Amino acid sequence: MSPKRNGFSLIEVMVSLVILVIGLIGIFNLHLVAKKGSFESFQQTQASYYVNDIINRMRINSGQLATYAGTYTGTTITSATSCDVAVGGNVNCTNIETRNWDLYQWERAFLGENEKSSDNKNVGGLDSPTACIDIDASNNVTVVMTWKGVRSSSDGTADKSAFIKGCGSSSDRRRALVVNTAIII
């Protein structure tokens, strides 16, 4: 009669370790994909916020609507008269000063200058953003926000109009958000 054996053999332990390592590698890769997807989603949410922000600013200052048209990269308006009205403050700005202040704040925001790291680097905003605003004679407004995505895919403007394609640098990582609206004066 053969003696009864208890425990695992070395081969069984090695096979178990290989299966465990393959599973852990899969979980790690899944984590990386999820982080990239989360960042892409965050960037799209930020772009949506910035587009809606400038549209609301244009609605408030509709007397200068036509002058908001242009391409913005964060360096268009280098300084502007502060037109923020604090509680109890008394700031009188012309419509043109208000437009310049709107664009100045907007550009600073999508560059991420409102959020700084401990070493004073911009950490908010979009990666390599470009914004384009087009306004036609009927006050139909098209706002395009482009930025650089994390992963390569097709160009975000491949099947769009020439105006949209012309906003930002063409790339397989370019993402684009386009909002069309009408502003009643």
Automatic annotation (TrEMBL):
Keyword Phosphoprotein: no
Keywords, ordered alphabetically: Membrane, Transmembrane, Transmembrane helix
Pfam short name (any one): N_methyl
Keyword Membrane: yes
Top-level division of the source organism's lineage: Bacteria
Spans traversing the lipid bilayer: 13-34
InterPro entries named among the record's database cross-references: N_methyl_site, Pilus_4_PilV
Signal peptide residues on this chain, from the entry's feature table: none
Name of the molecule in the record: Type IV pilus modification protein PilV
The organism of origin for this protein: Shewanella psychromarinicola
